[in-house]
Write a structure and sequence with these properties.
The protein is an alpha/beta fold.
């Protein structure tokens, strides 16, 4: 009997941000049409201290550049019957309002279908204490943008990544084994065979962000990652996976 092949999970970044403006209802609908397994959306508080409305936006620049969707409005849309087969990755961008996010998920009974991810372990620990069954994903590395795409920062950024990639597998293996997280959400530049192996040995899942190239999707799928996050879910049908 041939061993079963693990199905790589298809995740739409901000819904489907290369098809419709990201973090909007139209983008979520586009992701659904193109067959994703999970929709990723970002949530921030209206004020940096964690107070004010919860809004669906990547950062404060994004929030001020348009009229952002309210988090409650997004969840009500995603709780509709047509999304019943879809899971959600709610990316909490900053610390300070994690338990408010959890409260909204509880109100709409979305906890079983949701993974909360973030770059700040202390905030994720608060959620773990309040709702142990809710899946948590640690996003690495903690960066605001991809510094390797800027000529002024590319060389030092790539040098730092070399050391980071070397130590990351040990760190995530320990964190997963301790039960602090259930998944690792890793930028594609830090994904190595050693990281894939470490996440598996720690009993977790590995999701890779943000991959907008069909050949890279094929490469990561062959490495055995659990999920790939893309702005364009149409790429999944163009890859050989």
């Amino acid at each position: 009997m041939e061993p079963s092949v693990k199905r790589m999970r298809r995740v739409g970044h901000k819904g489907a941000a290369h098809i419709e403006p990201g973090n909007t209802l139209a983008s979520f609908d586009a992701a659904l049409r193109h067959g994703v397994d999970m929709i990723e959306l970002d949530v921030i508080s209206e004020s940096p201290d964690g107070s004010g409305r919860l809004l669906v936006a990547h950062d404060y620049q994004d929030m001020r550049s348009r009229v952002p969707l309210r988090f409650d409005e997004a969840l009500e849309h995603l709780a509709a019957d047509e999304f019943s087969g879809i899971e959600f990755d709610v990316d909490v961008k900053l610390p300070g309002y994690e338990l408010r996010v959890l409260d909204r998920l509880r109100q709409l009974d979305l906890v079983p279908r949701t993974l909360i991810s973030g770059m700040f372990p202390s905030g994720l620990a608060q959620i773990r204490a309040a709702e142990p069954a809710l899946r948590l994903g640690w996003s690495v590395p903690r960066v605001r943008r991809d510094y390797t795409t800027d000529m002024l920062t590319a060389i030092p950024a790539l040098a730092m990544l070399t050391g980071y990639r070397a130590t990351l597998p040990r760190r995530v293996r320990a964190a997963l084994a301790e039960g602090r997280f259930d998944a690792i959400m890793a930028h594609w530049r830090v994904v190595t065979k050693s990281l894939v192996r470490a996440v598996g040995e720690g009993g977790g899942e590995l999701y890779v962000w943000t991959v907008d190239d069909a050949r890279m999707i094929d490469k990561l799928t062959a490495m055995g990652v659990d999920g790939i996050i893309t702005n364009d879910p149409r790429l999944f049908s163009r890859s050989s996976s």
